[in-house]
Automatic annotation (TrEMBL), chain A:
Pfam families: Fasciclin. Gene3D superfamilies: FAS1 domain. InterPro entries: Adhesion/Biosynth-related, FAS1_dom_sf, FAS1_domain. Transmembrane segments: none annotated. Residues 1-130 form the FAS1 domain. It comes from the Bacteria. PROSITE patterns: FAS1. PANTHER family: FI19380P1 (PTHR10900:SF77), PERIOSTIN-RELATED (PTHR10900). One of its GO terms (cellular component) is extracellular space. This is Fasciclin domain-containing protein. SMART domains: FAS1. Signal peptide: none annotated.
TrEMBL record, chain B:
It holds the Pfam family ChpXY. This is CO2 hydration protein. It comes from Leptothoe spongobia TAU-MAC 1115. NCBIfam families: chpXY. InterPro entries: CO2_hydration.
């Protein structure tokens, strides 16, 4: 089965995410053992951010990495198990609130495609880049 | 847009309901009048010039003066730091916020040379005569951020990490190389030195924060002069965009000893401008700070000072500006600094009200308070955009969440000291 | 001519006012008050300190049938009082609001008042003194009644009635002096040369003391004062409290102590006790006041008690303190009333509950507050300021004679500190109320009078000799006997009043 990174690379609509993961040197990490749960913002989600924001982040990999790590949770959390929770702790360290279960909303992002299985985890596609705070 | 909002959500019952409705319509806490816009932009410009000195000197102290035992000349910034290019202005900037040059602002250089008196004198005389930029204000802000330890958890945790201690240790030993007396002292009291370095890290933190704000304010002034802003919310939106644009800027602390650079907080530590500098700054300086010494007596046993640090409410949003002019308090220092760089239209404006030139210091202080309500509005709107939902979100639950967020923010401004209601009228000046 | 000019110059000023348009009135009035002030300064330079007699005497027959002659003369006491009068007149006119209504009439009346008061200080004839003493009521009545504040006509009438009674009592004593003493006319010299028995001396002193006691005023004859001072506008209040009250103590010194020394010795303990009661009672009244001006008014009455205490003791030191205290009281009261007037004009209130934080450096009234602190410190007798020297001399002199009354008086200075701390704490300190604190600017013209007075208060405080030296010959002349040597008991007085002439 493909890893999280492979799935993102091989599917359309995640070009910005893949570029960001590469820029932040997180490819190896996300190809690792895991398991991880990744909330993956699609290209439309990144497009909602002001252009300078992304450019500036790409120039500063550690800072970009932190934002990306906020989208990653250790463990394999499918939508069924997420339904039992109101909050997750991200790899970045900050909590991710789950504001709604039906439909599933992760912080201020809606899950538009849930439970994409990968060899080292699970991916939920979201329509917004979520930020700490 | 406001019509759809009233259609979907019932009016708020909050005491600041009118302000909340304005925020929900994409406005600012400051009412949208041409007079307010003019005041706010004018004061941003007057603030940006001393700020251009503040950030340079803060970095100079953090990076060069470092642990000098008697830092008598820490405000005597080196030429190198005056010429240092701002990361966000000048033609070498990768993200050019301001169209002007990257070096120190010309008005600042002129003031540093001639001072208030307009006569060229040695820098030492300007310094002793207090005819200079009041760096003490910048340090007071830095100390407020440093002291309110709970507002910056990630940064503070790093200050106590092993990596930080090891890096600081290396820098301390290099800085005092050959100075056996001080090194012996360091052996005896390592924590004392470590705490000093932590404070210097906050110098760097605030310096890097203001390095962004100075060009933002300069650019806003230029746009206004060209007729670019029509409303107060336009000015606020510019700030919101600015906050997003540089949110990911690394916050770091490098120290230069001789030719060697010691990375006490490396960029790779992942500290960001928004989370580790801007938001803590707003919390520490706009909301909390500490009571100013010398303006009022507080009886702590009579609960006149909050028991919890998090309940402190002495920041600019709550401040009584009227004691400005009392010696040595931070607001006086700042207002005095801004007084030297007021744009002509603001000077003329102050002439017409109250005691004219005689109480400009307070009039501009209240203008500054208005302008900081606008900046805080920008922060609130930015946080709303980052953590909540668009203002025109069709989902009523999302609207409700936005409303709750705004109401929570306004809850902080319901205590009697808050000046939110005052700035709603033009008579408060 | 030198002394006639002293009265004539302000009158000329009052006439000159008629020739100028109302817009120029204040300027003309300032000259009208300034020239007599300069004239007084010149008199200081010409005054012969070593001479204990009246100087520059002038005499002319007027109505010899009545014993009324135009006789003028000046000694150290008169010189100081005239100086106080001319100075405070100038200050009062300076401190008047420039937009005052009917300015020409106002300033004319001020100048006439000043002229008449000068006249009473330099008169050498009792009847002449009395004429001046009564004459100044008319312009003052008008000044209070036309330009006063709330309840002005009530206050003016009360003032008129009280002072008229005071005048009647004094006149009784005067006639008594003439007829019983066997003098040919009312000139001081003739009256002094009496051979009145102790009994008659005491009996004549009683109406005299009550009459002047109303003017000073003394408790319980003081009730006209707070109403009058509060109702009067600032310049009039300065004249009333600063100068006019001195007529009372001046009269007691001139007629009581000088002309009836033996009787004075008998009455002195009572006057001292009376003074002590006034000091304490009015200090307590001042403490409970809510109105700034009323507080200063009561403080003024309380402080006149020291003058009386000093005159009662009647020795060289206490008299020297007493005369200095008259000057000090005038200067301090003038600065306080002026500042209260400025505060009222700017803030629009004199209520201690409404005032706060005026010391605020930019939006408050920092200069006014600083001066108010200085004035309060002076009034409380802080060393280095003019009242200290005066009160210290009074206490030192009177302690030997009236230890108990003096101790009570010293407690009174402590109470002064109490009410002035209350006053300063409420008005100057604390937090300026940002809802109301949009006061207009204090102009230089409003600062200048306070500045002049402050300089005098400090300079004369540091060098009190410049104040005390002028009146030394007067004291020597006045102190004929040391009252302490007469051990007059209550029974003796009783016997005296009952006609027992065994004394």
């Amino acid at each position: 089965m493909a890893t999280i990174v492979d799935i993102a690379v091989n599917n359309p609509g995640f070009e910005t995410l893949v570029a960001a993961v590469k820029a932040a040197n997180l490819v190896e990490t996300l190809q690792g053992e895991g398991p991880f749960t990744v909330f993956a913002p699609n290209d439309d989600a990144f497009a909602k951010l002001p252009p300078n924001t992304v450019n500036n982040l790409v120039q500063n990999p550690p800072q970009l990495g932190r934002i990306l790590c906020y989208h990653v949770v250790s463990g394999r959390w499918d939508s069924a198990s997420l339904a039992q929770l109101s909050e997750l702790t991200s790899v970045e360290g900050s909590p991710i609130p789950i504001r709604s279960h039906e439909p599933l909303e992760i912080k201020n992002a809606s899950v538009i495609a849930a439970d994409i299985e990968a060899s080292n985890g699970i991916i939920h596609v979201i329509d917004n880049v979520i930020l700490m705070g | 847009m406001s019509t759809t909002i009233t259609a979907t959500l019932p009016p708020s019952s909050h005491v600041h309901a009118d302000v909340i409705h304005r925020l929900e319509a994409g406005g600012s806490m400051l009412p949208d009048t041409p007079e307010n816009l003019m005041q706010v932009i004018g004061i941003y410009k007057a603030y940006a010039v001393p700020m251009d000195f503040y950030w340079r000197d803060l970095l100079y102290i953090a990076e060069r003066v470092f642990l000098k035992p008697l830092p008598l000349f820490k405000y005597f910034i080196s030429k190198e730091y005056l010429d240092r290019h701002n990361t966000y202005s000048g033609d070498q900037s990768p993200l050019r916020v301001w169209r002007g040059g990257g070096e120190a602002h010309p008005e600042l250089l002129e003031f540093m040379a001639k001072g208030e008196s307009g006569r060229k004198r040695p820098r030492l005389l300007h310094h002793l005569g207090h005819d200079r930029i009041n760096m003490e204000f910048a340090e007071a802000c830095m100390r407020a951020m440093f002291w309110h330890v709970d507002i910056n958890p990630k940064f503070n945790a790093y200050l106590y990490s092993d990596a930080y201690k090891a890096a600081a240790d290396k820098a301390i030993k290099a800085y005092f190389k050959g100075n056996w007396a001080v090194l012996g002292l360091y052996k005896l009291f390592p924590d004392m030195f470590m705490e000093q370095v932590r404070q210097l890290s906050y110098y760097a933190n605030l310096g890097l924060f203001w390095e962004v704000m100075a060009p933002v304010f300069f650019e806003m002034s230029d746009i206004y002069d060209e007729g670019g802003f029509a409303t107060v919310s336009d000015a606020m939106d510019f700030l919101v965009n600015g906050i997003f644009a540089v949110a990911g800027r690394p916050i770091y602390h490098h120290v230069y000893i001789g030719d060697e650079c010691f990375e006490i907080i490396p960029k790779s530590a992942g500290m960001t401008w928004l989370y580790e500098a801007a938001l803590p700054y707003v919390e520490a300086v706009f909301y909390r700070t500490t009571p100013f010494r010398g303006t009022k007596s507080y009886d702590a046993q009579a609960q006149q000072v909050p028991g919890e640090q998090s309940d402190f409410h002495y920041g600019i949003l709550y401040a009584d500006v009227f004691p400005v002019g009392s010696a040595g308090i931070p607001p006086t220092l700042l207002m005095q600094d801004m007084l030297h760089f007021l744009p002509p239209y603001l000077q003329e404006y102050y002439q017409e009200y109250c005691r004219g030139e005689d109480d400009q210091l307070i009039q501009l202080g209240i203008t500054f308070q208005r302008s900081m309500y606008n900046v805080t509005s920008a922060v609130i709107q930015a946080l709303r955009a980052a953590l909540y939902y668009p203002l025109d979100d069709p989902n009523p639950q999302h609207r409700q969440a936005n409303r709750r967020f705004f109401e929570e923010q306004m809850d902080r401004l319901t205590r009697s000291e808050a000046r939110l209601q005052d700035i709603q009228t033009a008579d408060y000046r | 001519m030198m002394l006639t000019l002293l009265m004539g110059l302000p009158l000329l000023g009052a006439l000159a006012l008629l020739l100028f348009p109302p817009a120029k009135a204040k300027l003309v009035a300032l000259w009208g008050a300034g020239i007599p002030l300069l004239w007084t300064l010149w008199l200081f330079s010409q005054f012969d300190i070593s001479n204990s007699q009246f100087q520059w005497s002038e005499a002319g027959a007027w109505l010899p049938v009545l014993g009324l002659n135009y006789e003028l003369g000046m000694d150290g006491l008169g010189l100081l009082m005239v100086a106080l009068n001319t100075l405070l007149t100038w200050i009062a006119i300076y401190s008047a609001r420039s937009e005052i209504e009917r300015p020409r009439l106002f300033y004319s009346l001020m100048l006439i008042t000043s002229s008449v008061i000068s006249g009473s200080f330099i008169a050498q004839n009792f009847l002449l003194f009395f004429l001046f003493y009564e004459a100044c009521l008319i312009p003052l009545y008008l000044l209070i009644n036309i330009w006063g504040g709330e309840k002005r006509s009530y206050a003016a009438t009360k003032f008129l009635i009280y002072t008229a009674i005071s005048g009647a009592l004094i006149l009784i004593s005067g006639f008594g002096l003439l007829w019983l003493g066997g003098a040919e006319d009312f000139s001081y010299a003739a009256l002094a040369d009496n051979s009145l028995s102790l009994k008659w001396q005491v009996l004549l002193l009683v109406p005299l003391a009550i009459g002047f006691g109303i003017k000073v005023p003394m408790v319980p004859l003081h009730t006209w004062l707070p109403d009058t001072y509060v109702a009067a506008s600032t310049p009039v209040a300065i004249l009333l409290g600063g100068v006019l009250a001195k007529l009372g103590t001046y009269g007691l010194l001139r007629f009581g102590l000088s002309l009836l020394p033996d009787g004075w010795a008998v009455v002195a303990p009572w006057i001292a006790t009376w003074a002590a009661i006034t000091i304490i009672y009015c200090a307590f009244l001042a403490i409970v006041q809510q109105d700034l001006k009323r507080m200063v008014a009561y403080s003024s009455v309380s402080h006149m008690g020291y003058v009386l205490l000093g005159s009662a003791a009647g020795n060289n030191l206490s008299l020297s303190g007493c005369i200095a205290q008259m000057m000090a009281h005038g200067l301090v009261l003038a600065i306080l009333f002026h500042l209260v007037g400025v505060i009222e004009a700017k803030v629009g209130s004199r209520d201690l509950d409404q005032l706060n934080g005026l010391m605020n450096p930019v939006r408050g009234l920092p200069f006014v507050s600083a001066m108010l602190v200085l004035g309060a410190m002076a009034s409380a007798g802080i060393p280095g300021l003019v009242n200290f020297a005066a009160e210290f001399a009074v206490f030192q002199g009177s302690y030997r004679v009236f230890p108990l009354q003096t101790l009570v008086g010293i407690v009174g200075t402590g109470l002064t500190a109490v009410y002035f701390v209350i006053l300063l704490n409420r008005t100057c300190f604390g937090r300026l109320d940002s809802k109301r604190a949009y006061f207009p600017k204090v102009s230089f013209n409003e600062k200048a009078p306070a500045l002049v007075l402050a300089v005098l208060i400090v300079v004369l405080g540091v060098q009190p000799n410049w104040l005390m030296r002028w009146s030394e010959p007067t004291e020597v002349k006045t102190v004929v006997i040391v009252p302490g040597e007469h051990n007059v008991s209550l029974r003796d007085i009783g016997g005296l009043l009952l006609g027992d002439s065994s004394l």
